[in-house]
Specification:
Radius of gyration: 14 Å
Number of domains: 1
CATH architecture: Roll
Number of strands: 6
Order of helices and strands: HHEEHEEEE
Strand order of the largest sheet: 2-1-6-5-4-3
Largest sheet: 6 strands, mixed
CATH class: Alpha Beta
CATH topology: Nuclear Transport Factor 2, Chain: A
Distance between the termini: 36 Å
């Protein structure tokens, strides 16, 4: 597959993951996260795929025109059927909460013809 097409697929997959969080979309999240997915947060806590999906209903719902979370400085490296996506995750906050910025590294694998995220790590970022 052409490198530009792969980059486009991964950018779309990352954006879809952000939207699944924002929309509390359990079906999309189930398609995006691999069965053995694990995310590690800046404070050292971790969640499995099941934890993330269960917590969707507990997250605050975002409504337009409220600013949506997004990423900046995204970089993608593709190695065979694996991709490493990194950058800065920006959560603009809502209801008076301060903006939060985190550096992230997501590991994606092509599983049965579809990109799925298998691991993610967040750490605090400044500026």
């Amino acid at each position: 597959m052409a490198p530009d097409k792969l980059l486009g697929e991964l950018e779309t997959a990352e954006d879809g993951w952000l939207m699944a969080y924002a929309r509390h979309d359990r079906a999309a999240m189930s398609r995006i996260l691999s069965s053995d997915f694990r995310i590690t947060f800046a404070d050292g806590t971790a969640q499995t795929r099941e934890d993330v999906i269960a917590n969707l209903d507990r997250r605050p719902r975002r409504t337009a025109p409220e600013p949506m979370p997004h990423t900046e400085k995204r970089a993608i490296r593709i190695l065979d059927n694996t991709a490493i996506v990194s950058g800065v995750y920006v959560n603009p906050g809502s209801d008076g909460q301060a903006e939060r910025r985190s550096r992230y590294t997501d590991t994606w694998m092509r599983i049965q013809g579809r990109w799925r995220v298998v691991a993610s790590h967040l750490s605090c970022a400044e500026g």
